[in-house]
Amino acid sequence: MNKAELTDAVQKRLGSATSNAAAERAVDAVLAAVGQGLRRDREVQLVGFGTFDVATRAARRGYNPYTRRPMKIRAMKTIRFKAGVLLKGAI
């Protein structure tokens, strides 16, 4: 499912009184709130759905796949997601 399909699904769930543009604004608002929560609190927990959190990957050695030469990969932040009970039950 891509963002357009998600927007359509949200619009259908909200009913015919809601426009597709309003559903798109709702989806954008939720995604922006999750991003802001990760930046501010480093964790966003949606009970039943799952938890997003910020993790730090350590620096490591890797290889350039084209030249096969070793290279340093810098430390970086990444986002992890752990599915909640309701989401696991939906699969």
Give structural notes:
- The chain has three helices and five strands, in the order H-H-E-E-E-E-E-H.
- With 91 residues, the chain is of the alpha+beta class.
- It folds into two domains: 1-41; 42-91, IHF-like DNA-binding proteins (HU Protein, Chain A, Irregular).
- The strands form two sheets. It has a three-stranded antiparallel β-sheet. It has a two-stranded antiparallel sheet with strand order 3-4.
- It is elongated and about 60 Å long.
Describe this structure in a few short sentences.
With 91 residues, the chain is of the alpha+beta class. It has three helices and five strands.
Spatial ordering of strands, largest sheet: 1-2-5
**What is the H/E string?**
HHEEEEEH
Structural class: alpha+beta
Q: From the coordinates shown, what is the CATH architecture of the largest domain?
A: Irregular
Q: End-to-end distance, in Å?
A: 14 Å
CA-based shape: elongated
How many helices? The count is 3
- Outline the biggest β-sheet: 3 strands, antiparallel
Give the amount of beta strand, in percent.
25-35%
CATH superfamily of the largest domain: IHF-like DNA-binding proteins
Compute the gyration radius: what is it? 19 Å
CATH-defined fold name of the largest domain: HU Protein, Chain A
Domain unit count = 2
**What is the CATH class name of the largest domain?**
Few Secondary Structures
Poorly predicted regions: none
